[in-house]
Write a structure and sequence with these properties.
The protein is an alpha+beta fold. The chain contains three helices and six strands; from the N terminus they run E-H-H-E-E-E-E-E-H. The longest helix is centred in the C-terminal third of the chain and has 28 residues. This is SRPBCC domain-containing protein.
């Protein structure tokens, strides 16, 4: 099982930052972040439609969370990437009544026999109670469920 990611102070309410060491080389971690057949093992439904191409759009689905104004459907667009180093995507709730416009950036750094993976999830509105609830839920989800699922998928490769 992969180690639990380190926590950082929550002083910037607009952003979630996760720093996770993975005992796998960057090339392997990159594959898990960008190959649809591997993404489906740890990301939301719809990740099988991912394509590593700037401008590519696809849809992810999960459980709706009315207390955070999340419809359960995320429109995703690939914004930028550097092979084996960085992937940036935009997430927006598919329901126009739920004004989310978030950027998710994955950065990989070779470290020893593994990879230091950084996740930065930006764009939360600290003046919106629903956005702060979404931030709280997603912060916990990124650190526990998602990183654990990614680590397990990497262990199976």
């Amino acid at each position: 099982m992969s180690p639990v990611p380190q926590s950082e102070p929550a002083d910037d309410l607009t952003t979630i930052r996760v720093d996770q060491f993975l005992p796998h080389p960057p090339a392997k971690v990159w594959r898990a972040l960008t190959e649809p057949e591997l993404l489906v093992q740890w990301q939301m439904q719809g990740s099988e439609d991912f394509r590593l191409e700037v401008g590519h759009q696809y849809t992810l689905t999960s459980v709706p969370r009315p207390n955070s104004k999340f419809s359960g459907t995320v429109d995703v667009r690939v914004l930028a990437y550097e092979p084996e180093r960085m992937l940036r995507v935009r997430w927006a709730d598919a329901d126009p009544a739920n004004p989310t416009d978030w950027t998710i950036t994955w950065t990989l750094e070779h470290e020893g026999r593994g990879t230091r993976l950084f996740l930065v999830h930006e764009g939360f509105d600290p003046d919106d109670p629903a956005q702060m609830m979404a931030r709280k839920i997603m912060d916990g989800g990124w650190r526990s469920h998602v990183m654990r699922a990614l680590g397990n998928a990497l262990d199976r490769l």
